[in-house]
Amino acid sequence: MSADLTVHLARFAGxxxxxxxxxxxxxxxxxxxxxxxxxxxxxxxxxxxxxxxLKIRPRDAEAFEDLFARLxxxxxxxxxxxxxxxxxxxxxxxxxxxxxxxxxxVEVEVEVxxxxxxxxxxxxxxxxxxxxxxxxxxLARLERLVVxxxxxxxxxxxxxxxxxxxxxxPDPRRSLRRAVATAGELVSLARRERxxxxxxxxxxxxxxxxxxxxxxxxxxFARALKRVARRTEVFAFNTDLVRITSWLSGGQQRSAxxxxxxxxxxxxxxxxxxxxxxxxxARHLDELVDSRTIVIVLSDGLDxxxxxxxAEAMRRIQARARRIFWLNPLLGDPRYQPTARGMAAxxxxxxxxxxxxxxxxxxxxxxxxxx
Length: 371
Prior knowledge:
The structure is a single chain. The chain is of the alpha/beta class. 42% of the residues lie in helices and 11% in strands. It contains 14 helices and 9 strands. The strands form 2 sheets. It has a 6-stranded mixed sheet, with helices on both faces. It has a 3-stranded antiparallel sheet with strand order 1-3-2. It starts with a helix and ends with a helix.
């Protein structure tokens, strides 16, 4: 795929954000993939593809159309003819090796915001880079990005509709019931809306040696979730279980994680997942987990203990929790199979086994937390 198309798309998305239109990196990725199937010689096809994949809301449609006309079509000047489309074939890169001249963005001064939303050219590769392959500077950058990622939970609306006062979509059934009190006269409309809900979360994070390349970042993720979903409890475990929620509140992230490493026994040591989850079920399950709680276990499932104990602990947790997610960094390898004793014992009691090897995998988790 042409690098020019990537640059043009990133510039256009930056212009949309400058105009106050929310466009995320995930939207840019979707748009770029869709553009590989669009007819780049057809401006209308490109316009519809971008409007759909960038998730342009009706209230932003006018601003989008204006920016598309100015930056992609060069409104006010005669469009140059597009070069002929080449047929795909061996040794031929096809139409995407060349952006049609009529669709090249006009060179204008556009100030792209820095730090408000990550841009494709700066962060897209980092989002897909495995945690264990990142250096300290990249991990620090990822930790800042994950804070923004977690903040989406604070603005994600529930699928449920609840009664509201003021603005909202009409509720015909409640409106008619209300009209009974006024002799059938519809004086006012009842309304309902999808509320913003942050889930109740319990995170249980493996800090054993096999998880060491991932533990720092996953705890940073837990800390970010704690900031936006205040009903979040966090535990660390290896050979023992430690409740670390209070350690993740306030202060600088690096110092908080350093204190954790010193406070949690056997950090980067061995692991007994079954015994630790058994301890959680015995001491904290009744207090912290109910039918509204999502339990997230972050572990590679490499257990030195007895798988029967792990299975029984998971069964008890499943009986009380709303859902259980198991996040496993090894799933980032397409060859991985969950056949290790610990993982195999836990699997029947898990609602979803998900990868957690890079930032992009965490992005896929958020819709499931809000569902």
